Amino acid sequence: MIGAIVSAIVIGAIIGALARLLVPGRQNMSIWLTLIVGIVAALIGTLIAQGVGVADTKGIDWWEHLIQLALAVIGVLLVTKFTAGRTHRPGGTAP
């Protein structure tokens, strides 16, 4: 159980970072948000890969990782789109 959680965090961090590299332009995302997007994409990607039957193959599960990466790219694009208009104001005052 602990190993699965650690592996999800590590794979999520790698998938999230790769997704940010693949999305053109600057993404104003924190490392924590990148990690969350990567973990969610990794978990959903694994479920999809299991459903399609490509999660457990001999060697490296390339199809599973490609699905995870595609979902992470979509996640980064969505987060970037929804947080593009938001700016942080010092002191927490609203406009």
From TrEMBL:
It comes from the Bacteria. The chain crosses the membrane at residues 6-23, 30-50, 62-80. Coiled coil: none annotated. It is a multi-pass membrane protein. Keywords: Cell membrane, Membrane, Transmembrane, Transmembrane helix. It is found in: Cell membrane. GO terms for cellular component: plasma membrane. Its main location: membrane. Belongs to the UPF0410 family. This is Transglycosylase associated protein.
